[in-house]
Amino acid sequence: MSTLIVTGTSTEVGKTITTAALAAAARAAGRSVAVCKPAQTGVAPSESGDLAEIARLSGVTRTLELARYPDPLAPDTAARRCGQPLLTLGDTVAAIDSLADADLTLIEGAGGLLVRLGEFTLLELARKLAAPVLVVAAAGLGTLNHSELTTRALAAAGLDCAGLVIGSWPAAPDLAAECNRTDLPAVTGVDIVGVIPEGAGRYAPERFAAEAGTWFAPGWTARL
Question: Which residues are annotated as catalytic?
Answer without folding.
Answer: 37
